[in-house]
Amino acid sequence: MLKVNEIEVRLSGIPVIHNISLEVKKGELVTVVGSNGAGKSTLLKTIAGTLHPTKGTITFENREIHRLSTPDIVKLGITYIPEARLIFGPLTVEDNLELGAFIVDDKNEVKKNLDFVYQLFPRLKERRTQISGTLSGGEQQMLAIGRGLMSNPKLLMLDEPSLGLMPKLVDEMLDAVSKLRDMGKTILLVEQNVFESLQIADRGYVIQTGKTIKEGKGSELLASEEIKKAFLGL
């Protein structure tokens, strides 16, 4: 579905990504791990069209997208949930969710997607009339993901969905991500919790200083001595 081929990305003329390649197949949960500053968030922003590579290509469903704008990429079926969440604080939970369906013309489809989000995150249904800015951090993250799902994306990209959450909510959040994959969603996940994210991943990529240095099944990467020493402290 998605293929990133040897991209280079520069910020203010300085290369942040030197050579990253990865693939995401339909129905997969693929995790990207790496240390802070490795280029993980830059990678997702580039796929989403907020940045453009100076070298390499990005294709989605066999169509080159690396020169397209973000709105055009969203219309193709890619939704990006940044780590900052960026909800509309003064609006209610349900208003935020409905805004996520701005490219869906069919009202019945919007209702179906809303029911799906409320099934995945029952807490949002309980708080559907609550002002979003008064939600807890975990609830705001649920809302950000739920809003992304309202457009019924073909590919959902999540940037650090557990960032800043207490351990119990981290498990709850990653359980929801795993459940989405089990429901047939295709997901590209960037996550600081290396062990937990590789546990639920079909495949994973390790990036370091803007380069892909290792790839494999989630279970294979967890068994790697290199990964254990670099990220798990073992």
What would the keywords be for this entry?
single chain, 234 residues, alpha/beta, Rossmann fold, 2 domains, 6-stranded mixed beta sheet, 4-stranded antiparallel beta sheet, 10 strands, globular
Provide a brief overview of the structure.
Helices cover 39% and strands 26% of the residues. It is α/β, with parallel strands linked by helices and 234 residues long.
What does this structure look like?
The strands form two sheets. The protein has a six-stranded mixed β-sheet, with helices on both faces. The protein has helices at residues 40-48, 70-76, 93-99, 107-120, 122-126, 137-149, 167-182, 194-200, 218-223, 225-232, and strands spanning 2-11, 14-24, 29-33, 55-60, 63-64, 78-81, 155-159, 186-190, 203-208, 211-217. It is of the alpha/beta class. Strand 4 and strand 5 (63-64) form a beta hairpin.
CATH class of the largest domain: Alpha Beta
**Strand arrangement in the largest pleated sheet:** 6-7-8-3-9-10
Total E-strand runs: 10
Ends apart, CA distance between termini:
35 Å
Q: Could you give the order of the helices and strands? A: EEEHEEHEHHHHEHEHEEHH
CATH superfamily of the largest domain: P-loop containing nucleotide triphosphate hydrolases
Radius of gyration: 17 Å
Q: DSSP strand (E) fraction?
A: 25-35%
What is the CATH architecture term of the largest domain?
3-Layer(aba) Sandwich
* Unreliable segments of 5+ consecutive residues: none
Molecular shape: globular
Largest sheet: 6 strands, mixed
Number of domains as seen in the coordinates: 2
Structural class: alpha/beta
